[in-house]
Design goal:
By secondary structure, the chain is of the alpha/beta class. The mean pLDDT is about 95. It folds into two domains: about 200 residues, Transcription Regulator spoIIAA (2-Layer Sandwich); about 60 residues, Orthogonal Bundle (Arc Repressor Mutant, subunit A), CATH 1.10.10. It has 15 helices and 13 strands.
Length: about 350
């Protein structure tokens, strides 16, 4: 942990020299289990952030936290550091499912961690919820939506479990130890979740994200709106907001070696074409309540999607999957079930 924190501080220093505007509006500690970090290492990272970047207008500072890492001592320290938003990985309130997922906490401990954070003064809390568990149904999901709304978070991120090849769950499916939900049941669960969370005061603003009015995740919204961002750490991505993207390669050992021994970065760089830019916007913007603005992206890229993909747009409109309001395309409720397929067909 010591070496990783030192390497990340060195990466921040290198990247700060290449910025014309070093102002940070949001910070997000995630992509792993940052809540396990000792407070002194978080302090070290914050010292580098504040010495290298302008954080005077910082709107949101989020830390991903496991329920079992949340203690009164850590909460107090996080608040002092300036963390004002927590994203807590509850996943589910069913103890058997938590055990099946190899989660350390149980349902009661998960709920207690949220209450502890609220009592410590954290008013902006996002909770993670998973669904599409094999051999479960709407009754399981109904219990989870009831339980999560009782905790009164400001934001909920809900993700369907996918049995990807190469993952533990994917291997279990291959060996016949578990079975994926049928597509029709998975669709029923998604629609049920959207309806129930809306009834509880959490309208959907992105396919996987729901919030109280005004509590949309500012950091994640920056990705969806193609704003510039820095990514620090192994496997992190960054974007200048215009034409250039970088990706730190994911090996921890190589990352540490390059930065601590050579003081250099180990990364891939990419220059985006007009097609790359509009395709990324299609993929991200269509997933949100703000939709994909045709004229905006014609101005930015010179590509007129309404002409290039007129037959595909008309087909999806006729099928009730896509809605056009003036110059903006939106996914319909049924279209959100097929978001990736629709985006893929609309890409240039």
């Amino acid at each position: 942990m010591e070496a990783m924190a030192e390497a990340m501080c060195r990466e921040m220093e290198i990247r700060s020299f290449n910025l014309t505007n070093n102002k940070l509006n949001t910070i997000y500690f995630g992509g792993g289990t940052p809540s396990v970090l000792p407070v002194r290492l978080l302090e070290k990272l914050f010292h580098s952030i504040r010495s290298l970047f302008d954080t005077g207008d910082l709107e949101e500072c989020t830390l991903e936290a496991n329920p079992d890492d949340i203690s009164d001592e850590k909460l107090k320290a996080w608040k002092v550091l300036g963390i004002n938003r927590l994203s807590i990985g509850l996943q589910t309130f069913d103890d058997q499912t938590l055990l099946w997922m190899n989660r350390i906490h149980n349902s009661d401990e998960g709920k207690a961690s949220v209450k502890r954070a609220q009592d410590a003064g954290f008013e902006n809390i996002s909770l993670d919820l998973m669904y599409h568990f094999p051999e479960t149904g709407l009754q399981h999901l109904e219990k989870d939506t009831e339980e999560i709304s009782r905790l009164n978070p400001t934001h909920i991120s809900a993700y369907g479990l996918t049995l990807e090849p190469g993952t533990t769950f994917g291997q279990w499916e291959k060996k016949g130890k578990i079975k994926a939900l049928p597509d029709d049941l998975a669709a029923d669960e998604f629609q049920f979740l959207v309806q129930k969370l809306e009834e509880k005061g959490y309208p959907q603003y992105e396919i996987s994200n729901f919030c109280r009015p005004g509590f949309e995740a500012k950091h994640n919204s920056a990705y969806w709106f193609q704003k510039p961002y820095l990514g620090i750490g192994p496997g992190a991505h960054g974007f200048d907001g215009e034409n250039h993207r970088y990706e730190n390669l994911p090996s921890n050992a190589r990352y540490l070696g390059k930065l601590l021994k050579e003081n250099t970065l180990w990364q891939k760089e990419e220059t985006l074409s007009a097609e790359d830019k509009i395709n990324e916007a299609i993929l991200t913007r269509l997933r949100t309540k703000w939709g994909f603005h045709l004229k905006e992206w014609q101005r930015k890229t010179g590509l007129h999607l309404e002409i290039i993909k007129s037959s595909e747009i008309e087909k999806f409109e006729a099928q009730g999957l896509l809605i056009r309001k003036q110059d903006t395309l939106f996914l319909s409720p049924s279209g959100k079930l097929l978001a990736d397929r629709i985006a893929a067909e609309l890409m240039v």
